Amino acid sequence: MRPITKAILAICVITSCATPTNKSVVDITPLVKRSMNTVVIVTPAQLQAKLSTTTTEVPLAFDAGDFIDEQRNLHGKCGEFHDLAIAVGWTEKQWPKLSHIVDRESRCDVRAHNKKDPMTGSRGLMQINGYWCKSVKYNPSGWLQAKGILTTCDDLYNPETNLRAGLAMWKYNDDRGKNGWSPWNL
Questions:
Q1: Along the 186 residues of the chain, how does pLDDT read in single tens digits?
Q2: Residue 31 contacts residue 47 (beta carbons within 8 Å)
Q3: Are 108 and 98 in contact (CB under 8 A)?
Q4: Helix (H, G, I), strand (E, B) or coil at 8
Q5: Alpha carbons 166 and 154: distance in angstroms, whole number
Q6: How far is 153 from 149, CA to CA, in rounded Å?
Q7: Which alpha helices (DSSP H) does 51-179 contain, by range?
Q8: Nearest to 88 by CA among 140, 12, 165
Q9: Do residues 184 and 109 lie in contact, with contact meaning Cβ atoms separated by under 8 Å?
Q10: 0.85 exceeded by the pTM?
Protein backbone atom coordinates (compact mmCIF):
# COMPACT_ATOMS: atom_id res chain seq x y z
CA MET A 1 0.00 0.00 0.00
CA ARG A 2 1.34 3.40 -0.97
CA PRO A 3 2.02 5.91 1.86
CA ILE A 4 -0.68 8.30 0.62
CA THR A 5 -3.27 5.50 0.70
CA LYS A 6 -2.28 4.59 4.26
CA ALA A 7 -2.69 8.20 5.34
CA ILE A 8 -6.11 8.53 3.76
CA LEU A 9 -7.24 5.28 5.37
CA ALA A 10 -5.97 6.44 8.74
CA ILE A 11 -7.97 9.67 8.51
CA CYS A 12 -11.12 7.81 7.55
CA VAL A 13 -10.75 5.44 10.47
CA ILE A 14 -10.09 8.24 12.96
CA THR A 15 -12.96 10.45 11.79
CA SER A 16 -15.44 7.75 10.82
CA CYS A 17 -15.79 8.62 7.15
CA ALA A 18 -18.16 5.73 6.67
CA THR A 19 -20.51 5.26 9.59
CA PRO A 20 -23.49 2.89 9.67
CA THR A 21 -25.82 5.81 8.95
CA ASN A 22 -23.59 7.53 6.41
CA LYS A 23 -22.24 5.02 3.96
CA SER A 24 -21.27 7.57 1.34
CA VAL A 25 -17.68 7.78 0.25
CA VAL A 26 -16.07 11.11 1.04
CA ASP A 27 -13.43 12.43 -1.30
CA ILE A 28 -10.68 13.71 0.99
CA THR A 29 -7.99 14.08 -1.65
CA PRO A 30 -8.32 17.90 -1.63
CA LEU A 31 -7.44 17.75 2.07
CA VAL A 32 -4.22 15.86 1.46
CA LYS A 33 -1.28 17.93 0.30
CA ARG A 34 1.85 16.51 -1.23
CA SER A 35 5.23 18.08 -0.84
CA MET A 36 7.99 16.08 -2.54
CA ASN A 37 7.89 12.65 -0.80
CA THR A 38 6.08 13.97 2.26
CA VAL A 39 2.36 13.86 2.80
CA VAL A 40 0.79 16.65 4.81
CA ILE A 41 -2.69 15.93 6.10
CA VAL A 42 -5.06 18.53 7.40
CA THR A 43 -6.34 18.21 10.95
CA PRO A 44 -9.35 16.02 11.78
CA ALA A 45 -11.34 19.16 12.61
CA GLN A 46 -10.71 20.53 9.13
CA LEU A 47 -11.66 17.19 7.66
CA GLN A 48 -14.85 17.02 9.75
CA ALA A 49 -15.85 20.49 8.52
CA LYS A 50 -15.68 19.16 4.95
CA LEU A 51 -17.78 16.08 5.74
CA SER A 52 -21.52 16.27 5.31
CA THR A 53 -23.37 16.62 8.60
CA THR A 54 -26.71 15.36 7.33
CA THR A 55 -27.48 11.79 6.46
CA THR A 56 -30.45 10.31 4.74
CA GLU A 57 -31.50 6.76 5.47
CA VAL A 58 -33.60 5.14 2.82
CA PRO A 59 -36.08 2.60 4.21
CA LEU A 60 -36.02 -0.85 2.73
CA ALA A 61 -38.52 -1.14 -0.08
CA PHE A 62 -41.16 -3.85 0.17
CA ASP A 63 -41.01 -6.18 -2.79
CA ALA A 64 -44.19 -8.25 -3.12
CA GLY A 65 -42.42 -10.65 -5.48
CA ASP A 66 -39.77 -11.45 -2.88
CA PHE A 67 -42.44 -11.94 -0.20
CA ILE A 68 -44.43 -14.32 -2.39
CA ASP A 69 -41.33 -16.33 -3.32
CA GLU A 70 -40.27 -16.54 0.33
CA GLN A 71 -43.72 -17.68 1.49
CA ARG A 72 -43.99 -20.23 -1.31
CA ASN A 73 -40.59 -21.62 -0.34
CA LEU A 74 -41.80 -21.95 3.26
CA HIS A 75 -45.39 -23.12 2.72
CA GLY A 76 -45.65 -24.46 -0.83
CA LYS A 77 -48.29 -23.59 -3.40
CA CYS A 78 -49.95 -20.22 -2.74
CA GLY A 79 -47.87 -19.94 0.45
CA GLU A 80 -48.46 -16.20 0.59
CA PHE A 81 -51.96 -17.04 1.90
CA HIS A 82 -50.81 -19.57 4.52
CA ASP A 83 -50.76 -17.22 7.52
CA LEU A 84 -54.09 -15.67 6.57
CA ALA A 85 -55.68 -19.11 6.20
CA ILE A 86 -54.45 -20.14 9.65
CA ALA A 87 -55.66 -16.83 11.12
CA VAL A 88 -59.22 -17.35 9.82
CA GLY A 89 -59.42 -20.89 11.23
CA TRP A 90 -57.94 -23.39 8.80
CA THR A 91 -55.45 -25.77 10.45
CA GLU A 92 -51.89 -26.68 9.55
CA LYS A 93 -53.15 -30.19 8.83
CA GLN A 94 -55.63 -28.79 6.29
CA TRP A 95 -53.13 -26.45 4.66
CA PRO A 96 -51.66 -28.90 2.09
CA LYS A 97 -55.11 -29.67 0.59
CA LEU A 98 -56.22 -26.06 0.91
CA SER A 99 -53.15 -24.76 -0.90
CA HIS A 100 -53.65 -27.38 -3.63
CA ILE A 101 -57.27 -26.26 -4.08
CA VAL A 102 -56.40 -22.55 -4.13
CA ASP A 103 -53.64 -23.19 -6.67
CA ARG A 104 -55.81 -25.36 -8.89
CA GLU A 105 -58.96 -23.24 -8.67
CA SER A 106 -57.52 -19.73 -9.03
CA ARG A 107 -53.75 -20.06 -9.49
CA CYS A 108 -53.49 -17.97 -6.30
CA ASP A 109 -55.26 -15.03 -7.98
CA VAL A 110 -57.67 -13.23 -5.63
CA ARG A 111 -59.42 -11.67 -8.67
CA ALA A 112 -60.16 -14.99 -10.38
CA HIS A 113 -63.71 -15.24 -11.74
CA ASN A 114 -65.13 -18.15 -13.72
CA LYS A 115 -68.19 -16.69 -15.44
CA LYS A 116 -69.04 -20.06 -16.98
CA ASP A 117 -70.08 -21.57 -13.63
CA PRO A 118 -73.81 -21.37 -12.83
CA MET A 119 -75.35 -18.82 -10.44
CA THR A 120 -73.24 -15.86 -11.71
CA GLY A 121 -69.97 -17.79 -11.64
CA SER A 122 -67.30 -18.63 -9.07
CA ARG A 123 -65.07 -16.05 -7.43
CA GLY A 124 -61.78 -15.54 -5.66
CA LEU A 125 -59.08 -17.83 -4.34
CA MET A 126 -61.25 -20.88 -3.69
CA GLN A 127 -63.62 -20.18 -6.61
CA ILE A 128 -66.72 -20.11 -4.43
CA ASN A 129 -69.84 -20.42 -6.51
CA GLY A 130 -72.50 -17.73 -6.53
CA TYR A 131 -74.98 -20.27 -5.18
CA TRP A 132 -73.53 -19.75 -1.71
CA CYS A 133 -74.15 -15.99 -1.71
CA LYS A 134 -77.25 -15.58 -3.86
CA SER A 135 -80.85 -15.59 -2.78
CA VAL A 136 -82.23 -19.11 -3.17
CA LYS A 137 -85.37 -20.86 -1.96
CA TYR A 138 -83.79 -22.11 1.29
CA ASN A 139 -81.68 -19.02 1.95
CA PRO A 140 -83.49 -15.87 0.78
CA SER A 141 -80.64 -13.61 1.91
CA GLY A 142 -77.92 -16.02 0.75
CA TRP A 143 -76.22 -18.73 2.81
CA LEU A 144 -72.96 -16.83 3.39
CA GLN A 145 -74.89 -13.63 4.20
CA ALA A 146 -76.97 -15.53 6.76
CA LYS A 147 -73.70 -16.70 8.37
CA GLY A 148 -72.50 -13.08 8.56
CA ILE A 149 -69.46 -13.77 6.38
CA LEU A 150 -70.20 -11.31 3.58
CA THR A 151 -72.79 -8.93 2.19
CA THR A 152 -72.44 -9.47 -1.57
CA CYS A 153 -70.87 -12.11 -3.81
CA ASP A 154 -68.20 -9.59 -4.81
CA ASP A 155 -66.88 -9.74 -1.23
CA LEU A 156 -65.43 -13.11 -2.27
CA TYR A 157 -62.63 -11.25 -4.08
CA ASN A 158 -61.26 -10.33 -0.65
CA PRO A 159 -58.87 -13.20 0.26
CA GLU A 160 -59.80 -13.17 3.96
CA THR A 161 -63.53 -13.28 3.20
CA ASN A 162 -62.98 -15.99 0.59
CA LEU A 163 -61.01 -18.18 2.99
CA ARG A 164 -63.63 -17.65 5.73
CA ALA A 165 -66.42 -18.57 3.30
CA GLY A 166 -64.51 -21.66 2.16
CA LEU A 167 -64.01 -22.75 5.76
CA ALA A 168 -67.72 -22.28 6.52
CA MET A 169 -68.57 -24.43 3.50
CA TRP A 170 -66.00 -27.05 4.55
CA LYS A 171 -67.47 -27.19 8.10
CA TYR A 172 -71.04 -27.36 6.74
CA ASN A 173 -70.19 -30.51 4.78
CA ASP A 174 -68.00 -32.02 7.50
CA ASP A 175 -70.71 -31.51 10.17
CA ARG A 176 -73.11 -33.49 7.99
CA GLY A 177 -70.76 -36.45 7.73
CA LYS A 178 -69.69 -35.60 4.20
CA ASN A 179 -66.20 -34.96 2.99
CA GLY A 180 -65.50 -31.32 3.91
CA TRP A 181 -63.65 -30.89 0.65
CA SER A 182 -66.63 -32.04 -1.46
CA PRO A 183 -67.46 -28.54 -2.85
CA TRP A 184 -64.11 -28.73 -4.66
CA ASN A 185 -63.06 -31.56 -6.91
CA LEU A 186 -59.90 -33.11 -5.54
A1: 454 444 444 444 444 444 444 444 445 555 555 555 555 555 666 666 666 556 667 666 767 778 999 999 999 999 999 999 999 999 999 999 999 999 999 999 999 999 999 888 999 999 999 999 988 888 889 999 999 999 999 999 999 999 999 999 999 999 999 999 999 977
A2: yes
A3: no
A4: helix
A5: 14
A6: 10
A7: 64-75, 82-88, 95-106, 143-146, 159-175
A8: 165
A9: no
A10: no
